[in-house]
Automatic annotation (TrEMBL):
<keyword id="KW-0808">Transferase</keyword>
<dbReference type="Pfam" id="PF00266">
    <property type="entry name" value="Aminotran_5"/>
</dbReference>
<dbReference type="InterPro" id="IPR015421">
    <property type="entry name" value="PyrdxlP-dep_Trfase_major"/>
</dbReference>
<keyword id="KW-0408">Iron</keyword>
<dbReference type="InterPro" id="IPR020578">
    <property type="entry name" value="Aminotrans_V_PyrdxlP_BS"/>
</dbReference>
<dbReference type="GO" id="GO:0051536">
    <property type="term" value="F:iron-sulfur cluster binding"/>
</dbReference>
<dbReference type="InterPro" id="IPR015422">
    <property type="entry name" value="PyrdxlP-dep_Trfase_small"/>
</dbReference>
<dbReference type="InterPro" id="IPR016454">
    <property type="entry name" value="Cysteine_dSase"/>
</dbReference>
<keyword id="KW-0663">Pyridoxal phosphate</keyword>
<dbReference type="InterPro" id="IPR000192">
    <property type="entry name" value="Aminotrans_V_dom"/>
</dbReference>
<dbReference type="InterPro" id="IPR015424">
    <property type="entry name" value="PyrdxlP-dep_Trfase"/>
</dbReference>
<keyword id="KW-0479">Metal-binding</keyword>
<comment type="similarity">
    <text>Belongs to the class-V pyridoxal-phosphate-dependent aminotransferase family. NifS/IscS subfamily.</text>
</comment>
<protein>
    <recommendedName>
        <fullName>cysteine desulfurase</fullName>
        <ecNumber>2.8.1.7</ecNumber>
    </recommendedName>
</protein>
<feature type="domain" description="Aminotransferase class V">
    <location>
        <begin position="4"/>
        <end position="368"/>
    </location>
</feature>
<dbReference type="GO" id="GO:0046872">
    <property type="term" value="F:metal ion binding"/>
</dbReference>
<dbReference type="GO" id="GO:0031071">
    <property type="term" value="F:cysteine desulfurase activity"/>
</dbReference>
Length: 375
């Protein structure tokens, strides 16, 4: 049976070079980075080299990067510490955010008794920037939290424009950049965003590791209390091999970016042309003109009966595909993201989220399309 992986927005396969770097670190760098002897110093130096390399790629300084267990932790930490330490009166966000932000802003706003406002969006996943600008005019102490790339639809926020607007109005800007780090080059020197987050497993690195970027001076209080790791801001022995693996994964993503982007972009447009051949205009490509080059979220003109079997049938044939975010994949409820974008008729069409990587091929797309044709 074929085994075809089209779920790269959920997670990605580790690159062989990343596995090698991790194994090498596990084998040779097992010292506790807090120990003062040579073993400890070596592990500590690996962490600091990784921090420098990552900071360099993103255009920030090494002390603005804090390693975390992943993006859920980083998003929660940023939102909580911003509300608490920057004395916020309000959070502005969107109902299309990943739950790692959506549930966090709801909980934290309630806990601290501050205002929470959601900006509107249109059917293509564009955030209403006019409304955002109007909201910001009152100059309340505000954190705006808007994701760069939506993990279900691939919809892109014009991050530079949004960052500029927020800065001009004296508010703070957090962007969940989990789906863009490693795929789009973010330059933190040019884009005045205050906080971003990343997760290595989304760019062919290991799971359980990510980072938060806090613009200088904006992070003052720890997330956990304990040891002095991460300058006392995040206590707990560092996951050295995962940090090294993340560094390698990001370096390779940057090194191979142009060539891989061209390949994946070509796959995406081939897939869309095949969908058009089979379904014509009755296949709804959600957010079409406004999506990242690696993802197609398509509503298919098939009956609900067939739809309920769709993922199961594709799984049986060896295709790994999902409908929305991995944490919701088993749920019969429609995606909260599509529910915000689509009208009552369009949302009835069963959808698939097909997300590509550099490893995919046209032949794999042909196999998928021929399975869909059998429905
Ligand atoms: N934010 C987005 C946009 C995501 O796609 C994900 C991953 O599913 C997360 C946050 C959570 O990241 P992590 O798996 O590192 O906790």
């Amino acid at each position: 049976m074929n085994k075809i992986y089209f779920d790269n927005a959920a997670t990605t396969a580790l690159r062989p070079e990343v596995i090698d770097a991790i194994v090498e670190s596990l084998r040779n760098d097992f010292g506790n980075p807090s120990s003062t002897h040579a073993y400890g110093r070596s592990a500590k130096s690996s962490i600091e080299l990784a921090r420098k390399s990552i900071a360099n790629l993103l255009g920030c300084t090494a002390n603005e990067i804090i390693f975390t267990s992943g993006a859920t932790e980083a998003n929660n930490w940023i939102i909580r510490s911003a509300v608490r330490d920057l004395k916020l009166q309000r959070i502005i966000s969107s109902k299309m955010e990943h739950h790692a932000v959506l549930y966090a802003v709801k909980e934290i706003a309630q806990e601290y008794g501050i205002e929470l406002v959601f900006v509107d969006n249109d059917k293509n996943g564009h955030i209403n920037l006019q409304q955002l600008a109007e909201l910001l005019q009152d100059k309340k102490q505000t954190l705006v939290s808007l994701m760069h790339i939506n993990n279900e639809t691939g919809c892109i926020l014009p991050i530079d424009e949004v960052a500029q607007l927020i800065k001009e109005n004296g508010a703070y800007f957090h962007s969940d950049t989990v789906q863009s780090v490693g795929k789009l080059k973010i330059d933190l020197q040019q884009t005045p965003v205050d906080f971003i987050t990343a997760s290595a497993h989304k760019f062919h690195g290991p799971k359980g590791i990510g980072f938060a970027f806090f613009r200088k001076g904006l992070l003052t209080n720890p997330i956990f209390f304990g040891g002095e790791q991460e300058k006392g801001l995040r206590a707990g022995t560092e996951s050295v091999h995962n940090i090294v693996g993340m560094q390698k994964a990001l370096e390779l993503a940057y090194e191979r970016h142009d060539e891989e982007k061209a390949h994946i972009t070509e796959l995406k447009s081939y897939f869309i042309s095949r969908l058009r051949e089979v379904y014509g205009e009755s296949a709804h490509i959600h957010g079409h003109e406004n999506t990242l080059y690696n993802l197609v979220n398509v509503g298919l003109p098939i009956s609900q009966e067939k739809a309920s079997m769709l993922l199961f049938m594709l799984d049986m044939k060896g295709f790994a595909i999902s409908r929305g975010s991995a944490c919701q994949s088993g749920s019969p409820k429609p995606s909260h993201v599509l529910a915000e974008m689509l009208d009552d008729e369009t949302i009835k069409f069963p959808n698939l989220r097909v997300s590509f990587s550099h490893d995919n091929t046209r032949e794999e797309i042909d196999l998928l399309v021929s399975e869909l044709q059998k429905l």
